[in-house]
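Researcher: Please generate the 3D structure of the following complex. Treat every line as part of one assembly.
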Amino acid sequence: MPYRSRTIIEPFRIHSVEPLRMTTEEHRRCAIRGAGHNLFNLHADDVLIDLLTDSGTGAMSRDQWAAIRHGDESYAGSPSWFVFLKAVQELFPFEHVIPTHQGRAAEKILFSVVAGRGKVVPNNTHFDTTRANVEATGAEAADLVIPEGLRPETLHPFKGNMDLGALEALLAGASRWP
Amino acid sequence: MFGRHPDGSERPAAMDLVRLAIPRRTYTQSHIDYVIEVVTAVAERASDLRGLRIVEEPPQLRHFTARFEPLG
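Model: Done. Output below.
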């Protein structure tokens, strides 16, 4: 029998380290009071382990850092742009590609074009800024998450899944969608 | 849009959830074990913890900038 370890190890070793700033309980109480008890108002320096930030905080690989050195910031015709364009067009059937700095900027552009008053935008639980951008155009955000996703006491492999029956019913009904 | 209804009323959410966004390859197993330990300790005290009252809120996407005070 081949040896099978019980421990699953990370398939990398650490290349560059960043110190964490330890704080006292009194310092944290003071920072939270100052933030009006809203964690969005805290200074990042006062946070030991950040599980709020949802993009751009993963550790970069050596190849990603190396790619930055190959990158180019030209206003027009940058080689980095063509690498991005090729990757997007390999994955999606879109002729036109507009780069944005973050998801919420992309949502603002997308929904101002395809949504609007009288339309319904179905999704499997819209992200908060996604719903806000949909509703800001006057459209309705219809959350079609599966029923299991709304029952915290049950186990399910993917509670964020789309309820396909509900989606088919919405598409077959009288609603207008993008 | 994540704020009060146009008539100023509140509708409680069906569920209050906490999201833990774990950045890729950034924290070690020990960091995650520490998070589990702290979350467990907080959950054990859940019945002693008081709620918060909204004291300032914008009309839209209020969770980003609202301010709260502990309930007495």
